[in-house]
Amino acid sequence: MSQPLVTIICLCYNHEKFIVESLTSVWKQAYEHIEVIIVDDCSTDDSVAIIQSYLATYPSPFPLKTLFLKQNLGNCAAFNRGWKMAKGEYIIDLATDDILLPKRVSSQVAHFQQLPEDYGVVFTESKYIDATGRDLGYHYDKQYKHIRPIPTGDIYQEVLSRYFISSPTMMIRKEVLQYLGGYDEQLAYEDFDFWVRSSRKYKYTYLDECTTLVRKLESSLSKGIYKKGDRQLHSTFLVCQKAKSLNKTLAEQEALIKRVKSEIRQSVFSDSREETVLFFGLLEEIESIKGFYRILYLLFKTNIPLNWLRSLYIRVRY
């Protein structure tokens, strides 16, 4: 069977401590037909110098392009600059603090080649590591251990209602990015929006194999969500707005309601007042505000900080 070209977009922003290990994991892939595109999003540390030194010492075994941006664009826009240069049939979005295991590309390509063309994404298990490489456990054995079986096929309703995909493990058919026009550059993070928009048209499948070591750092985007003023919460609202127009069934609308209610709780508990107003407004467009959420809304209107409710809510629920 022929080997389709896979493009690995190595996206760097201030990854000076990890970039060498990440690029080395790309060089060591047990698959020959790869192109590599390194995009540095105007790092303020020594990432660019380290990349240049590494490439001089260890030339890429694969065709290579580099793009050193002169202005910080953010993850979504920086990635878009990369994939538009890509020639591969399949795309991997690699943050250069993460590590690919040696059979990552070959396993996912083999899995893709068994699937019909309406499958746009193959995702897998991953293992979390900290800044020192210490093992923090597997994705589906940690915070997502309750999700079995893992949804596959038409997963639109599932991704709308809850998180479960380890996004760094995704291999994406390039056609999907072409259809979407890439990531939405107005957003602070890409995965929720990508899942919602792409799964409306394309199917997903899960490969039960650990392919990626995902770095969990204090500076990671996911660490900032649900803090007052965080841009990710507003981005989530924008995606929920999109989903409202994409929904086709009552079950999908119920999934959106579940998501909006979850984000209302997080907005209130983090004292993100602008997002609280927006999410309550969106909920009111879909169904009447009642019960617990009516009480929460009235409490919010008093302008009394409610972030203390987070710990109370967690104690009551769990």
Please tell me about this protein's structure.
It is built from 13 helices and nine strands. It has helices at residues 19-27, 47-57, 75-83, 104-112, 156-161, 174-180, 191-199, 221-224, 231-246, 250-269, 273-286, 292-301, 309-317; strands at 6-12, 34-40, 64-68, 90-95, 99-100, 119-129, 135-138, 171-173, 203-215. Strands 1, 2, 3, 4, 5, 6, 7, 8 and 9 form a nine-stranded mixed β-sheet that branches. A hairpin with a 5-residue loop joins strand 6 and strand 7. The chain is globular. The model has no long low-confidence stretch (mean pLDDT 91).
Defining traits:
single chain, 318 residues, alpha/beta, 13 helices, 42% helix
Taken from the alpha-carbon principal axes, the silhouette is globular
Number of DSSP helical runs: 13
Q: Which segments are poorly predicted (pLDDT under 50) over 5 or more consecutive residues?
A: none
What kind of sheet is the major sheet?
9 strands, mixed
Provide the succession of SSEs.
Answer: EHEHEHEEHEEHEHHEHHHHHH
Helix content: 40-55%
The proportion of strand residues reads: 15-25%
Average pLDDT works out at 91
Radius of gyration: 20 Å
Structural class determined from secondary elements: alpha/beta
Q: Short summary of the structure?
A:
With 318 residues, the chain is α/β, with parallel strands linked by helices. The protein contains 13 helices and nine strands. The longest helix is centred in the last third of the chain and has 20 residues.
Topology overview:
Elements: E1 6-12, H1 19-27, E2 34-40, H2 47-57, E3 64-68, H3 75-83, E4 90-95, E5 99-100, H4 104-112, E6 119-129, E7 135-138, H5 156-161, E8 171-173, H6 174-180, H7 191-199, E9 203-215, H8 221-224, H9 231-246, H10 250-269, H11 273-286, H12 292-301, H13 309-317
Parallel strand pairs: 1-2, 1-4, 2-3, 6-9
Antiparallel strand pairs: 4-8, 5-9, 6-7, 6-8
